[in-house]
Design brief:
The chain has 1 helix and 8 strands; from the N terminus they run βββββαβββ. With 113 residues, it is mainly beta. The chain has one domain. It has a 6-stranded mixed beta sheet with strand order 6-1-2-5-8-7. It has a two-stranded antiparallel ribbon with strand order 3-4. 12% of the residues are buried.
């Protein structure tokens, strides 16, 4: 498995006080197109594209990283969509919706490589 992923976004869940990193197996690219005189952009996606979810843990407490932790702002400032992040990989273990118990299509757990 590849030992790098591409930054997608940071998800901050205020209700559960957690921060998770969303990533993709390939950089997300887009192209612009014109439809009836209106300009749009659409993402180009390949069949192999996978998305990963990595819940971030505070190394000092062993608990979920608090959204107010200084590392959150640092990550937000450092990464843009599509930036490569070395040292993380997407597993083959699907993420399950905690309310329904169903697998979320094309979303897998990510972990340190």
């Amino acid at each position: 498995m590849k030992n790098s992923v591409y930054f997608r976004r940071l998800a901050i869940n205020e209700q559960y006080k957690t921060v998770s990193l969303y990533c993709s197996s390939e950089p997300l690219t887009q192209s612009t197109f014109n439809l009836d005189g209106l300009e749009f952009a659409a993402r180009k996606q390949t069949q192999d594209l996978k998305f990963g979810l990595l819940p971030l843990i505070d190394p000092k407490t062993g608990k979920s990283l608090d959204p107010k932790h200084p590392n959150v702002k640092t990550l937000q400032a450092k990464y843009n969509v599509g930036d490569e992040m070395v040292g993380i990989r997407i597993t083959d273990v699907p993420v399950v919706n905690r309310e329904t118990g169903e697998e979320i299509p094309n979303l897998f757990w990510a972990e340190p490589a």
